[in-house]
Amino acid sequence: MSRFDLTFPAEITVVRGGEATTRLAPWSGGSLLVDLLVGARSFLDHVDALPLAPPHLLAVARATIDVDARRLRIPRDFVGLDRAPALRRAYARALASAWPGWDLVDREPAPPTEAWVSMTLLRQLPEGGGSRAWITHVAADGAIRDVDLDVPVEEALSLGPALREAIAERPTIALAREAAIVDGVVAAPCRGGALVDDRRRRIEVWWSAPTRGAWASIGPLARLWPGYAAIAHDHGLPAQIAGSGRDPATVAVDDAEADALLAHLLQVERWVDPVALQAWALAPLDRARAAGVPITIPAEARARPRPTDAPPVPSPPPDRPLAGDMPEALRLADAIRSVDVALADGDPPDRLPRIFIGPALWLALLDRAIEEQLDPSARARLLRWLAPRIKIDAPDDDDALLGRVRADLDRRARAAPPFTRLFGWDTGPTS
Amino acid sequence: MGYRAHFLIREGGALRLHASHWGGQRLLRDLLHGPSIFAAYVESTRAVGELYYEDAVDGVALVDHDRRALTFWGGDNLGVESIPGLRRRYLELLRGRWPGWAIRWEPGGIRAIAASVAVPVPASIDGPSRGELRVQALLDGALGRDPGPRENVVSVRENAHSVHNVRAGWDVDALLTLGPRLVDEVRAQAPAPLPRESLPDPDDEAWERRGGILLDVEARRIECWWNWPATRRVEALPLLARFWPGWTLALAVDGLVVHAERGGRPRAAVELPLAEAAAALERRLFAEEPAGAEDAVEPAAIAREALAAWTAQLDGAPGAELTIAAGLLGDEGGLPPPLELRGQIARRLAR
Questions:
Q1: ipTM of the complex in this document
Q2: Which residues of A make CB contacts under 8 Å with B?
């Protein structure tokens, strides 16, 4: 009898009386952030009823609740709110309301445990603009220029003061709101930025996803800007605009707007119903069992009900526009596909890959839902995003592109070794 | 396949380009024949109109008859160039074979040599981006959290009478990211004696990147080196210099002996003993196998045999076509060894 570990797991560690216990919510990777908003009591009751997590679990979402210290921590990598600092602040407010008296948020990323950070030094800026960094330069005479670059902000700053000359001839861009719903997706205009202020001899840097490495790079960056004070902050684009002496209201979202964006992100765009997800993902196994293949689903891998008093969510979820994290979505689709492929090829069940895979739902969509569930504009957006990553030419006709992408994905899924089936999508083609 | 070499010949104000498919393998040995024989050999190779793309070049020599100057880089194919103590002795030997010529080893390889005569080098097809440098940037206090083993040397020269030497496990390029802060961090470390030059253990994978930094506080000048100052390291220097505003940063190709000399000590205090260096040169220059590896093979000969076998097979296959790169079969890969030097290197160096 073969066992499958095809889940979309959240992992929750509870510390009580100095002892840590880690439990598994097998299909709750897409709902953990919402579930936490029920508050400490209800959520802890829910967690205590969950099975223990197996060792070496590759969780999609994770949280640690230290009851002794009344401290809740969600690792930054799992927060999924890294499109704009305003979204993180909105979630922090919501969580603080649900967990009164608890210590909930790290003010900044923990320092690296190593004595170094990996850093990329550019010889020159690449041509053209992009959404990876917005730089605001305030010259000594007070002239202000905003430019967009297609390199991460810390790489742009690696040019040192020569950056000012490098952007001097570039066109200044029109500012945009730090976050907004665009085509049904919560979007931010840039992934980071910096204010370079020659008057105050100061650079101020921020990232939409402030990893500990990026945050720590401010020290080495400061050495590249002699005579300038260098600081990192988590206040995003509004602080960059305010630092240049302009009104940040032109780009800032207020608390109410941020709350609405957060609700859309968590309860619409990224929402995953654990029960529906399990049913969808295990469909290939049901087909296999119906065909007489002896496969069991471990009891601990069955979907659990959501915690008591969990916040309401759209049910059934509306057509999702398939935004979110594309590579994770592809991993999921690939994992699910691999089960079907293996069964179709007649592999003995014990040779089928054990799959712990991520953001399940997202790709539930690719093979099946890409065609059946997505509205035409969302599908076109996904396909146009996907085509260069799998290195296929994108014809103008959307239907032709769909056929080409699906054929290519199917070919790759069948050709890729198991390891790359799980991890290869976001690092390059596997052929 | 191949050990491609380029020869750039300047004569009568004109520049000519030549190429050899296998001549890069033992370029350093071929140069020891001296200017007359080497120039004749170069003339026997193929004249070309443009250079190979950079990563395909295993050796390059610029023979400037107008200025009587030789500049070369051999890709470390004989295991000489990545050992500073051997490299210096080889240059001594070579200068004796090219009397009246200015001899220079160019660690920047084909790109630097071609740039010096304004010849374009086609960009690599798959090589790493030349537009950026990925570096391990150290955080403040890193020297106190050294990962070890402490195989690199950092010296702070306060003045003509005071040099503070320490050992570090961080790589040279990582240390340079500390900028002027490095000076203070070195001062805070306990002094360590300078090591002595040695030959590498064949299994020492970290040998090539090991090196040192000499910080001259008064002159605000930095000299750094790696055992093998690969082209990418040489080209990284202007980027690393950004961490040192107001200082100059230069490559010290002579390696560890620079630390001794800047500290007022004779280079003999740290340099590889002459007898040891001469014996190692004999092995590397005259062994049938490159780099002194006893189980090494002769790639040029094997490749030619294999190619001949495949060609024979294809001849019998209907519709098959095979295009053979120019020089692949006919180019014998350089000159025979300069036998008059065999067993004589120690004596010649001792003169």
A1: 0.84
A2: 112, 115-124, 126, 155, 158-160, 216-217, 219-220, 223-224, 226
Indicate the pTM of the whole model. 0.80
A115–B246: do the CB atoms touch at under 8 Å?
Answer: no
A353 confidence band (pLDDT: 50, 70, 90): very low
Sign of CA dihedral B124, A426, A348, A343: negative
The pLDDT value recorded for residue B15 is 97
Q: Of B140, B184, B239, which to mutate for an interface test with A (greatest number of A Cβ within 10 Å)?
A: B239
Residues of B in contact with A115 (CB under 8 A): 138-139, 141-142, 145, 147
- SS3 readout for B302-336: HHHHHHHHHHHHHHCCCCCCCCCCCCCCCCCCCCC
Asked whether the predicted pLDDT for residue A337 surpasses 60, the reply is no
H helical segments located in A313-367: 326-344, 360-364
Q: Scan for tokens 């202000």, then name that residue.
A: A144
Placement of tokens 């000590």 in the chain: B265
CB contact under 8 A, B136 and A160: no
Q: What is the mean pLDDT of residues A369-376?
A: 55
Residue A46 has a pLDDT of 95
Q: Could you tell me which chain A residue has the CA closest to the CA of B147?
A: A115
Structure tokens, B93: 């030997």
Which tens digit of pLDDT belongs to each residue from B163-222?
999 999 999 999 999 999 999 999 999 999 999 999 999 899 999 999 999 999 999 999
- One DSSP character per residue, B231-288 reads HHHHHHHHHHGGGSTT-EEEE-TTTHHHHHHHTT--GGGTSPPHHHHHHHHHHHHHSS
Q: Which residue has the higher pLDDT, A377 or B103?
A: B103
Task: Determine, for residues A123 and B239 on separate chains, whether the beta-carbon distance falls below 8 Å.
Answer: yes
pLDDT for res A31: 83
Q: What is the dihedral of CA B334, B339, B340, B343, to 10 degrees?
A: 130
Helices (H), B73-131: 84-97, 109-116
Return the residue matching tokens 């600081």: A231
**Looking at residue A312, what DSSP letter applies?**
P
CA distance A181 to A267: 14
- What's the pLDDT score for residue B35? 96
